[in-house]
Amino acid sequence: MSAEPLVPETKVLAIASHVRTLWRWHPAIGNTMAAFVMQTLGCEVAALNTVHYSNHLGYRQSKGTKTSADDISDLYVGLKQSYLTDFDVMLTGYAPNAKAVDAIGAIGRDLKLKALTKPGSFFWVLDPVMGDEGRIYVDEDVIPAYRGLLRDADLILPNQFELELLSEIEIRSTCDLTKAIRKLHQDYRVPHVVVTSVRFDPLSPFISIVGSTSCADGSPRLFKVDVPAIDCFFSGTGDMFAALTVVRLREAVSNEGLLASKAWQSPDETDALELPLAKAVEKVLGSMHIILQKTKVARDAELEKMSGPQGAMEKDSEKRIHLRKTKAAEVRLVRNLRDLREPAICHQAQALAKTDSWNPARLPQSKGRTG
Question: How far apart are CA 322 and CA 266, in angstroms?
Fold first, then answer.
């Protein structure tokens, strides 16, 4: 496994939740997950935490505190006073309320203003954490607060439900999805969009990741990557995806000589499949899919061991069983660092035209090519 950095020297400000982990092989979620991934792949990371919890909320119980909007702002002021804000990238994730979102927005705008005379020198990746599968798990006023940040972000990473909340378009087809992405490009001037999970049929054995980098006129250049769904509930995968995207996109942009281009945008003549964003997503999913597969195997073995020959786990309370299953499904990241650094690209991007019908199962998949 090569120890050479994958990206040019990169300093990242990561603003997200912090969940303490008691097991060194489980980086949990939020900044605990994201900082570990980015540092492992060669980035320097300053973590500003929006909450401090004992464990993630998948356990249905936790202890800890939320960081106030004033404290978020004060921590950034402290960095600024000490001339420690020479960041190349900002990655923002979970914020518990609208005031915290506004504080994060003020930080992002200040860093963008600082980099105004040097195109490409600062890039903001915004993960608008609001909910999933029709359920909102933040305060309702967070939704308009996030809409207020869209014009300042360079890349946003909503899931399908979050894209509906941001675009105010119900997404039930490829046409709806295209309209929503186009709206973000044209109305909010978001240069890059990746929808991290698209599934029109809940029974489909595939999950699709759809991305686009806009042309100068705001029209989308759409691609999608389809991966087999894994029958297991994982926590922290959104944070893992976001962190890997920071590294892999910067790597791809550097390889194309676009680091000094505004918002790292490719020329209009660049085909969707040749976009740095498409190449980055292929590598991100190459790492994630194999690590989650290995996690599922380890989780099943651990649960089998717990149940024992007499089915001991079945005698536990429902709560105890849930806690055991949740712990067993924590992502095995530390034990699979090679898969982070050297992903096998088994699922390639496919161009998605506005008129395409949605049939992930028919899309070809290549095997054996490595990143």
Answer: 47
Between CA 273 and CA 302 the distance in angstroms is: 40
* Rounded CA separation 341/40 (Å): 8
Q: Give the list of residues 6+ apart from residue 205 with CB closer than 8 angstroms, or none.
A: 228, 229, 361
Q: CA 133 to CA 238: how far, in whole Å?
A: 14
- Report the alpha-carbon distance of residue 211 to residue 221 in Å, rounded: 8
Please name which of 291, 292, 294, 300 lies closest in space to residue 328, comparing C-alpha atoms.
300
| Beta-strand relationship, 89-92 and 123-126 | parallel
Beta bridge partners of 44: 11
pLDDT in tens, 183-240: 999 999 999 999 999 999 988 999 999 999 999 999 999 999 999 998 888 887 899 9
CA-based end-to-end distance of the chain: 13
Angle at 320 between CA 314 and CA 321, to 5 degrees: 45
Whole-model pTM: value is 0.90
* DSSP structural state of residue 86: -
Tokens of 291: 């690590």
Q: How many residues does the chain have?
A: 371
Helix axes 237-255, 30-40, angle to 10 degrees: 30
